[in-house]
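To the team - heme C complex, inputs and output below.
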Amino acid sequence: MFKAYKVACAVLLLGVFLSGTLLAAGKAASSTAQSTKIDVKKLESAFKNSKCIQCHTWDTYKLGKPQKKVEDPFGSDQFGTSGPPDLSKLSPELVKEISRSKTFLEEYLIRKVKLRGKQHGFMFKGDGEDLKLLIRALLQQKK
Ligand code: HEC
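Output:
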């Protein structure tokens, strides 16, 4: 009789303990999921404030105004000759540089390094947080 009471208590305590850890684990999982998801509203203002929008479109996130080469955004002359590329698809050269150096993209955007032997057409002078978000959004679509 007394024993049964003790067992019930133990089971109850265990239950409380388990649900607590499960809840905590669930919370941790959902917050990491949030931190990798791109907030498109924030990205849009970073894209505008940093002036990327003056030259680029970004189809992945539906940003920027479509330009005339929109019929063939990934055409062979996407880079260099026909003006600023849409940022949805990173060029093979850029992908190669990124795989060699984690900081390449940031250094390219602040004109410390060259891509295809050229500096970026624009020097980033905006907010550091915006730059981080832009880089994260660029890399996350790299598949
Ligand atoms: C004055 C126009 C201009 C502005 C503003 C500009 N870019 Fe560019 N960007 C270019 C041009 C032109 C190229 C292609 C350069 C080349 O082919 O070497 C380019 C290339 C790039 C590339 C490399 C694409 C690839 O896959 O090779 C990235 C990434 C990029 N820009 C991101 C940005 C971001 C982010 C911003 C805003 C901070 C921005 N650009 C602002 C003109 C611009």
